[in-house]
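> tool_call: predict_assembly(chains=two)
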Amino acid sequence: MIRVIKIGGAIVDDEAVLVSTLTALAPFAPFILIHGGGRVATDLARQLGIQQTMVNGRRVTDADTLKVVVQTYAGLINKTIVARLQALGVNTIGLTGADLDVVRAHRRAVGEVDYGFVGDVDDVRRDVLQQFLSKGQSIVLAPITHDGAGTLLNTNADTLASAVASALGKDAELVFLFEHAGVLRDVRDTTSTIPSLSRYQASRLIADGILTDGMLPKLEAAFAAAEAGVTQVRITRYDTPDAGTQILGEQTL
Amino acid sequence: MIRVIKIGGAIVDDEAVLVSTLTALAPFAPFILIHGGGRVATDLARQLGIQQTMVNGRRVTDADTLKVVVQTYAGLINKTIVARLQALGVNTIGLTGADLDVVRAHRRAVGEVDYGFVGDVDDVRRDVLQQFLSKGQSIVLAPITHDGAGTLLNTNADTLASAVASALGKDAELVFLFEHAGVLRDVRDTTSTIPSLSRYQASRLIADGILTDGMLPKLEAAFAAAEAGVTQVRITRYDTPDAGTQILGEQTL
């Protein structure tokens, strides 16, 4: 079973949390770790005077912003994690989607919003992932993809994690690690974790206004993976990877 | 024969030159390409107000500068080249020394100068390079290494290219591509290329003040590779890879 682990921005932003999370993951190597960007890209853009626009929780990526996210996600964050894992004895390679063409995407069509250099995933090369995993080499994947025509693209890390786990199907477990205990009935009550959630249950909680905002894209990514046959999908806090909320695919109903 | 190609900052800085250089290299894949940083890191550091200090043509790398070079070398430049090569049909992986532990280094001891987070190479993993090359996968290596204890280090790209070629020995050719026609007797005369150069000849040209400045670290890197048994070592202009100056090792005297 291959663990595909998404770590969110709050983990990336806090060095102590990052190191303790990586230390806890080390015994499960080889794994695939997909990281978000955290505040690093936003901070760098602000320092450079590049205006940032968020729509529905997604970053509009103009040419200057693309440079910023490639620098921070594929450069600083990815390689910092790789070096930390090497120090923990986890032999690791850091990748973007462009490396060995592992994740091919296309630039999102302009609709009501022009997201700029944002990539929607077309294809994940399972054979390339296996090339490393079969040798015991772990993978750290930055949320940067490419279009095959020379252009790098910014892809949401939750979506990317879902696509990678889905490409591995029943051979994979997918865990989203973030700062909350799971999907909560009440974000102010850390004990209100929903133990398991089907798409039908989620749709009712959304209709009732209980699930809102930033959780919706993550939930969509989680359900997509569960419905693609990923063995187990879980959303949980970084220090309790086996607790949290289990996401049920249609086949588990 | 594996081509190890170092491309200098002037190539990285000019998108048209970069693309034409990569296009000319494509038929020789799989190869190992090692890139410098060009002005990108210096420009980013200036924009961020991080003071840059150069000593003997080497960048003093404090903690903030390390972040800048990791972002620009391992992030923006490395992944831009990878995506461009993919578009040319060259299946490529971008690496730093931390990835799969391919280049281990140690932080340079503080002598008259404290270079900060600058790494001197200890070990190049030939088996890791071969893992890719044997599958026809080219490698783009950023001049960032690690110490195995979690710290990334800034390593001179000429030195890194020399170390990588030396690890491959007689199976490798090493070409330094830059903006000049080769090692010149007179930097103002582009027709003054020295066709071949031994260490003894170079020492006389240095004593006579004919070879100076920025050429000396590159020459040292080139001689080290030639003396380590690399089959051919050449310093030449990016658009004439088979011309320029051939560097002679002791064994070719």
